[in-house]
Structure formats: structure tokens, C-alpha cells
Amino acid sequence: MKISLISFTSRGYRLLNKLLDMISDTNEARGYYKGKYLPADHETDSRIEIVTDELSEWVKTQYIQRNAIIFISSAGIAVRGIAPFVRDKYRDPAVVVMDEYGKNIISLLSGHLGGANELTNYLADMLQGNPVITTATDLNCVFAVDLFAKKNQLLITDRELAKEISAAILNDKKVFLHADTIIKGDWPEELANRKETSEQFGIYVSPFVTVNTPEMEGKSLHLIPKVISIGIGCKKSTSEDKLKQFILEQLGQKGIDIRSVINIASIDIKREEECLLRISRELEVPFLTYGSEELMKAEGEYERSDYVSRITGVDNVCERAAKLASNHGKIILHKTKGNGMTLALAMKEWSVTL
């Protein structure tokens, strides 16, 4: 975790030093001091940078570059510092504030998705302080859909519906949960594995656009796992638009949501192919490439092409690339041809944990 810590007094400076010693082994931590009087030992401590800019300028930079900000100060200083930059819990970093003795550690912003609640408990445990958590689902010890999504790396497709589901749970309503995979862990009493009324909220976890169960009709939140690998072969100088359309058509044929794609893959001689690089950037997923020997080691039965084998040394690029990119997952769309392009889809083994 990329963490920035800032203090404003000599006593806070000493606590800042202590925290850097505690957390730097497992986090990328940076220390900052913005106070009227420099501590006597500052000249011998190169880890802590003196802030000369306005606090708002410092916060603006940390908001962009870091995952978490820890204020060793009053809550008021922290609130005024972050106020101009607060957006929403899906984009804000974790913000934690503590007093200069480390007695009270407060999760101030982005408790679930940003990880401020977890960070607060972690710091309180180390400092033997008092963690202050105010999120309702934590206080009531009930299922939190945003935390469940973060824990399992699931995309929340409807933020307003996620809020409604949390509100329903806090008002003692049961929520139906369905996943296209194994659900591990103990089921909390707030969740049901079957729908009891048509008005009941639902959550479904699936890489597919729709789930074939009538129980998911109505107010159901779709959470999308990143589990689909696309293996691709194409002629040199294939256009990005043509390849993108081909990908969309094949995903659509299988009913797969494009947001479930975790990577695209091909043979290493295609590592500089512009259309593949651009698709990778557009989808914001890695572009993986493999050598011919590595591809040929992929286990399974594949449709053989003598022509492709002569050119590349591999009998089937797209299926073998998808297989490797999915960590030897299941091929769910075998080699499909289209105007100088080939494509295969594989789904990695996955599960969710409550």
C-alpha cells in the first residue's frame, strides 16, 4: 500500500518516526512534516520531508499518487485539508487521522473500498490505541456488498443499487445471493440462497451479461469477476476497429460481459502489433505474449493449422494463448476465424469468499 503520513507538531513528528519504523517493511510509506518548529533531530532523519507548500497543495498531490493518507493531527485539520478533493468512495484514497499520542485512530474517509477501516484497525493494534470506525455495516457486524466486492475483486455495476442493498440489510431485510461458481465461507444471516419474495433484492456474481434464473429478475445487482482471457491471432497490420468488432461479436455470442476480460494474449512475435496494444490499452488489461515452445506445452486438444505451424512454429496460437493466460483455465470458445483473425476464450478457475 502506498501510504503518506504527515504530522504538524514535535510530538507528532516522534509518532510519525515510530510509525515509519512499524509499517515501512510491508508498505511504501513516506513521511512529511508541516509545522512551525523543526524538531531538533530532523537533520539526522532523511526519511521525513519538510512540507513548505500550502497543505491543500500537498493533499492534492497525495490524492493522485497514494492509496492512503494518515494525518497525525486534529480531525479538523484533516477534514479541512481533504475537503476540496473528496469525490466518492470508489475513487477516494483511505484517509485516517490520529492524535499525536496515537490513542485514538479514526477511519475518516473511504472505509471499505479505500481500506481506511482495515488500516485503522491495523494501526490501532500496533499502537495499542482505540480504533474509531463509524460505518454502519461494521458497527452492526452485517454483510457489506462493497467490502464483499473489494475482497473478491468484483466490479460493482450499479453504485446506487449497491447503496439500496446496504440500506435494506441495515433494516433487517434478507438479500438473495447467486454466483456462477463456488461460494466459500459461512453465510451471514442477512443473505439467502433462494429468493423468498419478488420484491427481494438480489446480488449475482457472474462474467455473463445475464444470469439464467428467474430469481434474479427485479432489483438485482450484478457483480462482475475478471476471469476471461482472450487468445488472439491476426495478420500483420490488422486494423484496431476490425479486431475490436471481432472481439465484441464473439463475446456477445457467448453472452460475456466485456468488463470480465482480465487479459488478452498472443504469440511473442505479435508483441509489437499495434492493434493488440491498442485493444489492451482500451480495455485496461495486460497484453501477454508467449514463445512458441511455451505455447506448445499448453495441455489439451487443439484444432491444428499446418499453415500457422509453418509460420509461427505453433499449431494453434489463439487457443493455446488463452489457455496459458487463464492459468490453464477452461476453453469456453474454441478457435473462431474471421477475416484474417482468430480468437479463443478461456475462463480461469475462480470462486468467491464471504
From TrEMBL:
Gene3D superfamilies assigned: 3.40.50.11220, CobE/GbiG C-terminal domain
Keyword annotations: Lyase
Highest taxon in the source lineage: Bacteria
Domain named CobE/GbiG C-terminal: residues: 228-346
Presence of keyword Lyase: yes
Domain spans labelled Cobalamin biosynthesis central region: 143-209
Name of this protein: Cobalt-precorrin 5A acetaldehyde-lyase
Source organism: Mobilisporobacter senegalensis
